[in-house]
Design brief:
heterodimer, A: 236 residues, mainly alpha, 6 helices, elongated, B: 259 residues, alpha/beta, six-stranded mixed beta sheet, four-stranded antiparallel beta sheet, 35% helix
């Protein structure tokens, strides 16, 4: 593999475009991480006010995605990037889109907080918290891999997605058992199931980000990794 | 690193080419295959040797007294530097288009008819007319000049003059066309017309183009060779070269980080 490209462009404005883009990605990524953390805190503490702010703040993530889109398109049009520059710009466009989706999942979790019945579900869905932590870790590492141009870390993120999937299967089964045993809890059970699914999807998006990071750095796709199989995925 | 293509069958093969201008070595052992199916682009910074190397392919360097060429260049398996090679015939088979359009100060018709006449390619006026029309058609110029074939070639616009020069090269039925920065003196629209023409001529002739404009290399060629200080640093599929070059020098050059 070639060493990462650190030489500056002859046209310095190109470098400042890329620095600005990297800054925007760091910002949108940081906000998305915070959105998941806040949504989960709101859920675990039944904090409806925090859930509500999390929903409102998703708009900032959407705005940042639009800013990134605009700047990438503008840079492509004006600089006609090639090779690693081109790969970085295309992957940045896709990564911003994935982060925006992650923000939507966090918002969706927050939206479900006030809809849960006042029951002690924490015991049956106790896998949710570690599951969300594992997913946040994936997102955070994928973004670090982008910021530090670290292909090895990106590869690791892809290989660690299975952990989140395993939590998901366990939480799913626990909730099904709970709903069978206590049909009164079906309303909350279904919401919690969607929340678990959202976290699982966040993990998938984190690995997609890591794949794009790996491609941007190396020019190759990660093809030889075990994607695992989702036992609950009916589309397979 | 030098990669040689094995597929498809090469029209021209160059092996271990070294070019000297007096004591100065301008090309350090370049080997490359040129085929009919692909347009090959040579890119690289000024002074990298891309034009010098291009000119070895039809012995244009013979016209520079201090220039010496070592190595082997074959055209259909025939050594073009052998003493039995007729250089005039060679330059008809391997035609050339230059940076600045250089029509003869003659009529449009005579610009095209000149080559076929001296090479005896037409037996009568009717046949010559056909060659002129066909060449201008192929060069995408016929509709613009068919009613003024007797006007001077130098009265045409720059882009038209360059297409006239391409038509002139085509008229002697070449197998290979070498283009040395054919668009650098043209505006973007005339450039686009030449690029479209290169696209249409692909497959009929083996085409090699030297260009400073990397976007142009990306647009018109299927294979790209990157030259640097007399070496061919990298040679491969154009789409691969511009998205994922294998050599750091290539990458730095095409991403605008050179020097």
């Amino acid at each position: 593999m070639m060493t990462p490209n650190t030489t500056k462009h002859t046209v310095k404005a190109f470098d400042s475009d890329i620095v600005r883009l990297r800054g925007l990605v760091a910002e949108i990524g940081g906000r998305a991480e915070l959105a998941i953390t806040d949504a989960m805190t709101a859920l675990l503490r039944n904090d409806k006010a925090l859930a509500s702010t999390t929903i409102i703040k998703d708009k900032e993530i959407d705005d940042l995605e639009r800013q990134i889109d605009r700047l990438v398109i503008q840079t492509m049009a004006l600089r006609a990037p090639m090779a690693d520059d081109l790969r970085v710009l295309v992957s940045t466009l896709k990564i911003a889109n994935k982060i925006e989706r992650i923000g939507d999942y966090a918002k969706n979790i927050a939206k479900r907080v006030p809809l849960l019945d006042d029951i002690d579900w924490a015991e049956t869905a106790d896998g949710l918290e570690p599951m969300s932590k594992a997913a946040i870790r994936l997102v955070s590492d994928a973004l670090n891999a982008y910021a530090q141009r670290d292909a090895d870390l990106a590869m690791q993120v892809c290989n660690r997605d299975k952990l989140v999937d395993d939590y998901y299967s366990a939480v799913f089964r626990g909730l099904v058992d709970q709903m069978i045993a206590t049909p009164d809890h079906v309303n909350s059970g279904v919401h919690l199931m969607f929340i678990a699914k959202n976290i699982e999807r966040i993990g998938d998006h984190a690995t997609n980000i890591a794949e794009m990071v790996y491609f941007a750095i190396t020019g190759r796709a990660i093809i030889d990794r075990d994607r695992g199989s989702d036992p609950l995925d009916m589309t397979d | 690193m030098t990669q040689n293509t094995v597929q498809p069958d090469p029209k021209m093969t160059a092996r271990d080419i070294e070019v000297f201008y007096g004591q100065k070595k301008a090309i350090n052992g370049v080997s490359i295959d040129i085929d009919m199916e692909n347009v090959t682009a040579f890119i690289g910074p000024s002074g990298c040797g891309k034009s010098t190397f291009l000119r070895t392919l039809n012995r244009m360097n013979d016209t520079i007294p201090s220039a010496r060429v070592k190595g082997t260049i074959m055209l259909d398996g025939e050594d073009i530097y052998s003493s039995s090679m007729d250089v005039v015939q060679l330059r008809a088979r391997v035609g050339m288009v230059f940076q600045k359009p250089n029509p003869f100060p003659k009529s449009i018709y005579d610009n095209i008819a000149y080559g076929p006449r001296i090479h005896g390619l037409a037996s009568d006026k009717e046949e010559l007319d056909q060659i002129v029309e066909k060449s201008l058609q192929r060069a995408g110029l016929w509709n613009e000049v068919k009613d003024r074939l007797s006007e001077s070639g130098t009265a045409l616009s720059g882009g038209q003059q360059q297409r006239l020069c391409i038509a002139r090269a085509i008229a002697v039925d070449p197998e290979v066309i070498l283009m040395d920065e054919p668009c650098s003196a043209l505006d973007p629209i005339a450039t686009a017309k030449i690029e479209e023409l290169i696209h249409e001529l692909r497959g009929k002739y083996a085409i090699v183009i030297v260009t400073h404009n990397m976007q142009q290399a990306a647009r018109v060629s299927q294979r790209t060779a990157f030259f640097h200080l007399g070496d061919m640093v990298e040679y491969g599929e154009t789409s691969e070269m511009f998205t994922n070059p294998q050599q750091e020098k290539t990458r730095d050059y095409i991403t605008g980080r050179y020097g």
